[in-house]
């Protein structure tokens, strides 16, 4: 099973590409992370009332979904690492790129956990639901004294904000780097993260643009 998975993954990695699973994780999470940065800032500008509470709940529940996605992605990435491509040439920028990716993975955990800690310290009336379905309990902060609850809230808020600032700097930097690879260096890095629309690269004899004549096909493929 693992062997088959690696063989399948190598079909992509050997051509400098991420697997379709890696690509799906990347673009789904990129969209959700940007959505999350938006709701995080906007929800604070709502006037106090039910709309504001609903905006906070959306933010929290989407954030917890990112925690789950991030952990699954990390697991996937340990089993199937990304390809070695032009972004991995030894040197300073490869180090910065790998560091950035590492920080992204760390933030996929630190941001939701600090958010969850904040949510739990303010003793919410409503439970949270993961992806709108699975109820998520508050962390056990209600047993703490009021003073300690406040300390937890304060610390979690600082951690959350620091993570948000780091993410807001690294995301545009990462995007600019990807665009530079594509437009300036004209290498394979950006393409390796795009979904592949056709399958013809896999054929051992090269691109196959039309089906082979009927007479050449094995019997079971005929009628
Ligand atoms: C990757 C996931 C997340 C991202 C990118 C994110 C982003 C943000 C941003 C941009 C803000 C506004 C800046 C700030 O006050 O810190 C914010 C605030 C907040 N987030 Fe998140 N968040 C994430 C996950 C979560 C989760 C899972 C929860 C709760 C379970 C949560 C709860 C909160 C709360 C309560 C605030 C308001 C803090 C305040 O009023 O100062 N966040 N978040
Ligand atoms: C919130 C937004 C984003 C986040 C959090 C993010 C995160 C990541 C992470 C963690 C990786 C490393 C994947 C791995 O090897 O396991 C990665 C790779 C990559 N990302 Fe993003 N990304 C975001 C947006 C974008 C955007 C908008 C672009 C394109 C403009 C982009 C282009 C790429 C490319 C080309 C790679 C492959 C780099 C390589 O092969 O070394 N990303 N991204």
TrEMBL record:
InterPro entries documented for this protein: Cyt_b561_bac/Ni-Hgenase, Cytochrome_b561_oxidase, Di-haem_cyt_TM
Annotated Cytochrome b561 bacterial/Ni-hydrogenase domain residues: 17-195
Region named Disordered: 196-223
Topology term for the membrane: Multi-pass membrane protein
Gene Ontology CC entries for this record: plasma membrane
Protein name according to UniProt: Cytochrome b561
Family: Belongs to the cytochrome b561 family.
UniProt KW keywords: Cell membrane, Electron transport, Heme, Iron, Membrane, Metal-binding, Transmembrane, Transmembrane helix, Transport
Biased composition (Basic and acidic residues): 197-206
Localisation per UniProt entry: Cell membrane
GO MF term list: electron transfer activity; heme binding; metal ion binding
Source organism of the structure: Novosphingobium hassiacum
Pfam families reported in the protein's UniProt record: Ni_hydr_CYTB (PF01292)
Xref: Gene3D superfamilies: Transmembrane di-heme cytochromes, Chain C (1.20.950.20)
